[in-house]
Design brief:
This protein has 158 residues and is mainly alpha-helical. The protein is 47% helix and 5% strand. The radius of gyration is 21 Å and the shape is elongated.
Length: 158
């Protein structure tokens, strides 16, 4: 472990955060070596092991709280069509809607709101406000991704 990594750990930074910093540093070192030719080699910098898995699921009562808090959104079809620019795999996808999702999306549309076009920061701000409003503001494992875990582990997601 480098002195810099140790310093960051002492400051309370998570290993994943430190690894992102190291990744940025490696990018600059690669440019300095390959493109700018100002260094003759890239030093080896080991990344820290990460343990950032979360297995948080919503209970039915928590799911109800989240559902009731949402102002709710819509599409007129019973599927959400994602363009390749909107997916991690860069492939177009069609995701079927449950009745509950359809209801939410329909109500949102009537308010003129389109949930899948939110910039990341805005979505995060809305999520954090909702978390706080339903009593999960301090739960660091209650993430947007928790909703996905809950859906796919529930009977309607299977």
């Amino acid at each position: 472990m480098s002195d810099l990594q140790y310093k960051f750990l002492k400051e309370g930074k998570a290993p994943a955060t430190i690894n992102r910093y190291i990744s940025s540093l490696k990018l600059v070192l690669n440019l300095a070596w390959k493109k700018w030719e100002v260094i003759d080699r890239i030093p080896y910098i080991e990344v820290l092991p990460e343990n950032n898995t979360r297995d948080r699921f919503l209970t039915y009562a928590e799911e109800e709280k989240q559902f009731n808090y949402s102002k709710n959104r819509d599409f007129t079809s019973r599927a959400i069509h994602l363009k390749k620019e909107q997916t991690k795999s860069k492939k177009t996808r069609t995701v079927p809607m449950t009745e509950r999702v359809y209801e939410i999306l329909w109500r949102r549309r009537s308010l003129g709101e389109y949930p899948l076009n939110l910039p990341h920061r805005r979505a995060l701000k809305i999520w954090n406000k909702a978390k706080k409003a339903i009593g999960f503001g301090d739960d660091k494992n209650f993430l947007i991704h928790t909703l996905r875990h809950t859906f796919f582990s529930s009977p309607c997601g299977k």
